[in-house]
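Retro notes, item 3 of 5
We never archived the inputs for the (2R)-2,3-dihydroxypropanoic acid complex last cycle. Fixing that now. Sequence and ligand:
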Amino acid sequence: MSARQLMKVFVTRRIPQEGMKLLQKASMCDVLVWDSDEPVPRAELLEKVEGAHGLVCLLSDRIDAEVLDAAGPNLKVISTMSVGFDHLAIEEIKKRGIRVGYTPDVLTDATAELTVALLLATARRLPEGIQEVKSGGWSSWKPLWLCGYGLSGSTVGVIGLGRIVPLDTLLRESDFVVVSCSLTPDTQELCNKAFFSKMKNTAVFINTSRGAVVNQEDLLEALTSGQIAAAGLDVTTPEPLPTDHPLLRLSNCVVLPHIGSATFSTRGVMAQLSAHNLLSGLTGDPMPSELKL
Ligand code: DGY
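Structure as it came back at the time:
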């Protein structure tokens, strides 16, 4: 195949080798990578995507009409290395007949593990305990010091397992409320003042889905007023959360930097699946995981 016939693929970040190797050995592609761990600046993205047939992107890249226009009519496939696709302008993509690949299922276990870890860390106040050890605040074993809430025998309500339990009942009865649903117009700011007001004062709120599912002002108020006991967040608005954000000053709020799927093997499989989706899309074959638009 001559260079002129190669299909241009732009990869918006350095992704794990498992995916890069597949892309690099695809003889039909000319692969251009933003070879950095940091996001591609918007201006570079708009420039580099020009003429691309395929785009491999991450959840931190906003792929909207401007990017699609910059890419131009060659663009056939967008493959996002994520299960979430709220960063993609789906209606615009659909209008242009572009196919979308994503990575469901392969990160479920890693994210579930992180959710349990965050839940326990928040409920049992691990970050506070670690801080006390480091700062010399640990003077003795004390009967009421750093007590939290136990998981054993509690009721855990998970939002994102389907519409099995009415939300009000779930909020009223749960000791732990775990949010794992996708971000859609229906779930945008679902967790707001009214939502928190239905939770128990002793309940712990955990979010490992998307920051925008939560109204953060209302969460801040619920945490400071004692409406709820504590929150553990792996996702925030914006990401990264500014270091002077009021949520970071609260001892009853644990914030992680969106690491739900961050195990070496999971990220490797996500990269591999993203590459397979992209290549199948470019050749017009069924993708292993295509988003139905
Ligand atoms: C995803 O893939 O959408 C997750 O949020 C990454 O952890």
